[in-house]
Amino acid sequence: MNSSETVAYRNELVREVFGSLSIDKSRLPSSGLTGTGVPSFVGEWLLDKIVPGTGSLTSEELEKVNSFVQKAFPRKDDKEEIIFYLTQDAFYKLIALMQVRVKVEQKTGEIPEPLARIPVLNLEECSISPDLVQKNLMLLRQGLWGKISLTMRPDGQIEVVGFEPFQCSAIDLKAYAECRAQFSTDEWRDLMFCSMGFNPQHPSYSREAKTWVLARLLPLVEPNYHIMELAPKGTGKSFVFENISNKVKLISGGKITPARLLIDGRTKEIGLIGRHDVVVLDEVQSLTFDNPEEVIGPLKTYMASGRYNRSGFADISSDCSLVMLANIELDEQQRPKNEDNLIANLPKFFNETAFLDRFAGIIPGWQIPKFQRDMTAYQTGLKMDFFGEALLALRQDSRFIQYAQQNTHFDSHVTVRDQNAILKSAAGFLKILYPHLKLTVMDYQRDCLEPAMQLRQAIRNVLYHLDDEFRQTEREIYAEIAF
């Protein structure tokens, strides 16, 4: 039975409990902001500032938003016009993503100054005061979206003289848990689902389908958690990763260089894995490397230990989670055509079992319905910036893995790697569904342990198919709650 058939969505309760941290999810799709390339966590923040309210935007509100976008959001071809404006002794304010780096020159005897980068305008070396950077240290990692104030110095260098970040500040996890306690499990599941941007009351979303959509959040709540999703086109695999947080980086197909992913041996700049909490490789069926082993070798080391090195540099530690998304073909029964070997159509390096074994699981995307317009959330959910930060804030809370360890019993034949993968997935589901940790062991079995086992079983099945070594023990993974 669909959960949407049994649970009424309580918009009033969401607004009562979360107040200004909630938003009517119909606002953003009706605003046109998503068509400008603005991620949801920025768009929802802006709408609440410019045109707060509920329901689809009125014509007057749309006009106000459009006017704001035209003034505040630059296009790449606006660069020269903005530079000219700055030469006329004027300030210029815009809304964009900004990143900062410190360019260290050897043996100059001078302390280097930070330099700001605004990708949308292709501005690479803007001056910025250390004080501004100190107040917004995330600029030095993946960068921040915000309101940027520019001017031009007498020497012609563009300078950032003001910055107001949009993203949510520190999360109070105790208060978040207290909020969770005011919802039933089904109500909370639907709130999480709605906050992701999906309609929890759509009849096509069964409880099982919702579980696999929510599984996309596991890499956010669990550090060093690596997972795949295999699905036909059109199930919305990448949607949440594109829109939930700037700490999540999505890369779509094509060629990936070790310099971009790991570390640039020439500039010594740390790659994406060292700067983001989650890195998502989309369309991996078309992923290529000039020298696969130069990437896969360090990745195997990193996925096992949380550390990697390249080009003679010292080990780099990170808790970044890796996500691989790929399209697969289904048969007439809407099952994978290669069910015994789900990775049959992926690049050859996936056939290396030592690499594959390091993934916690495979999300069965074929059990998620293809996304249609009426599957977009229209209820009241959590603002995307708050939602993303709350999930990411749970990464370092060790109580959930301890709960999973204490309440899970494995058969003796289950490998340590299988056990660790299942425990991390189960702990992740706990963080998503039970952040207050108030549940029965039967709740844990149904909502956390069983889906965690299914995720890992999919990996186990492929390993069993590919390598005789994995046929030395039983194919099925057995685990149960510990009484």
From TrEMBL:
<dbReference type="InterPro" id="IPR014061">
    <property type="entry name" value="BrxL-like"/>
</dbReference>
<dbReference type="Pfam" id="PF13337">
    <property type="entry name" value="BrxL_ATPase"/>
</dbReference>
<protein>
    <submittedName>
        <fullName>TIGR02688 family protein</fullName>
    </submittedName>
</protein>
<dbReference type="InterPro" id="IPR046838">
    <property type="entry name" value="BrxL_N"/>
</dbReference>
<dbReference type="Pfam" id="PF20442">
    <property type="entry name" value="BrxL_N"/>
</dbReference>
<feature type="domain" description="BREX system Lon protease-like BrxL N-terminal">
    <location>
        <begin position="16"/>
        <end position="150"/>
    </location>
</feature>
